[in-house]
Amino acid sequence: MLSVGIWVNSGGGGKFLKCRIHNNKKVGIELTGTCTNPAFKNCHIYGNESSGVFIHNKASGIFKECNVYDNTLTGVTIVDQSDPNFVKCNIYNGKSGGIWCYDHAYGSFQDCHIFNNKCAGIELKTSSNTIFRNNIIERGKAIAIYVHDKGKGIFENNIIKEYNQLAIVIKSQANPTFTKNEIYNNKGTGVTIFKEGQGYFENNKIHNNGEFNVEITDNSRPTFIKNTFYDSKLSSIVIGKQSKPLFNGNQVYSAENHGFIIRESANPTLRKNDIHHNKFTGIICYDKCTGFIEANNIHNNYKAGVEISFQGNPILLGNRISDNLFAGVTVHTYGRGQLTGNDIYGNRSFGIGIRTFGDPYIKSTQIHHHERGTGVFIFNRGSGTFESCTIFSNGKVGIEIKSKSNPTFLNCVIKDHNKSGLVYVHYHGKGWFKHCKILNSPSIGIEIKTKGQPRLLGNIIQNCKCGIWIHDKAGGVIKDNQLIDNKEGGIVMERGSKPYIVNNPIIKNEK
Predict the structure, then answer these.
(1) Is 228 helix (H, G, I), strand (E, B) or coil?
(2) 508 CB neighbour count, 10 Å cutoff
């Protein structure tokens, strides 16, 4: 006795219209064998003690406008290279899951409604590559889509929403493709990828999820191209545990916390993304992460554009970092980073801030037009190397160094500040300035005070109100500099200052 409602095998066909297949001891419909290809329309398949529909051993079949529900195992199970088509079907209330595809399953689901299934709405594994197009997948008890163990799958133009836990889970070398889907209003994370998961995501909208929009961990390597991520309840995208994803050309905005978190030795590539209006930082890098961050537009975030700490060491190349409500880039607590060819401007407090043993390398970067702030602010034992940078037109000072900080500036141009001085070293600040040009300030070129101790070697200090002003027990080494055309003196010293000054041409200063 088969204990099956309908069994079609060995090339069988037939048409089944408006049938009710229910309460069978095993499956409602079983299709098996090559060339098996019956058609079912407007059928109800429910209450069966295993799957509602079980298709295996290279069988096919067409299901149109059917209702598959309240089955004990799943609504539909497809295995063994089988290739059925489901069109405009409702698949719901599966007591274990909605759709299972494994062992090289194929098939397609189009314009279906998949909802209220207990475990996964859709599960693919073991090289299955089923197509899901224009479906609504919603209101499940656990996970909407679970792809694992080298599963694949093509998901296009689906709506995936309102799951009690996670929307999409990818793991164990699974590699599905998601194109033009909308993934939103899930109580957990929108997309979770771990244990060497992969996946390709293009032109999706992923938003308003209860935790993160995307979380990637455990050496996973997905690709995200031209997606839109917004309004996550926590940070939008989290990358950790040695993962190496690619994000290219995405919009990331309006997260309740950070736009990107990169941590735990992760090494992502972020290229040509627009990262803005997140309520904390645009990109935060820490915990020994690296990463390649290139040609992004990082702007209007409520704190910093980029924050690097705790041995984070990313490469930032050719980014535009502007108009953030606190700072452009902050590096602190043993953070590092290599910043080359970036344009950092218009941030509210400062362009680059370094503190607490932060030690970045910054080259060929423009830092300018912080109209209410400082270009570079280094304090509380910060360091760092600036090479061939241009720092200009900032509202306060160009560079401020204090509290035992000791950065190096090589071949930099610091110029054109409208109100304040260009370089301000004070309160035990140090620093090396070598072969820099310090030009065009209506105030001080370099001010050294309150036990500041910088080393100025081979610089040109020109066309300032005062070239170098040293006061309040400050010192330092001033050697081989040229002081030219400064209106109120080349070097002015007062109030107990004792610098070491040697071989500085002082030319055409008015006083």
Answers:
(1) strand
(2) 11
- Alpha carbon of 436 to those of 105, 453, 454: distances in Å? 66, 17, 14
Amino acid at 228: T
The tokens describing 324, both together, are: 């953030």
Start-to-end C-alpha separation, the chain: 112
Other CB atoms within 10 Å distance of the CB of residue 320: 18
Taking the CA atoms of residue 479, residue 482, residue 486 and residue 490 in that order, the dihedral angle to the nearest 10 degrees is 30
99 near 114, Cβ under 8 Å?
A: yes
Contacts 24+ apart (CB under 8 A), 231-235: 231/207, 231/255, 231/256, 232/190, 232/207, 232/208, 232/256, 232/257, 233/208, 233/209, 235/259, 235/260, 235/261, 235/278, 235/280
What is the four-CA torsion angle of 192, 198, 200, 201, rounded to 10 degrees?
10
Q: Is 32 left (phi over 0), alpha (psi -120 to 50) or beta?
A: beta
User: Residue 46 CA to chain centroid, in angstroms?
Assistant: 44
- Which one-letter amino acid corresponds to residue 21? I
The rounded radius of gyration (Å) of the Cα atoms in the chain is 32
Tokens of 486: 């400064």
- For residue 2, count CB atoms less than 10 angstroms from its CB and return exposed for 0-12, middle for 13-18, buried for 19 or more: exposed
Report the run of H or E that residue 303 belongs to, with start and end. none
Tens-digit pLDDT profile for residues 241-256? 999 999 999 999 999 9
- The letter for the amino acid at 43 is C
pLDDT tens, 356-401? Answer: 999 999 999 999 999 889 999 999 999 999 999 999 999 889 999 9
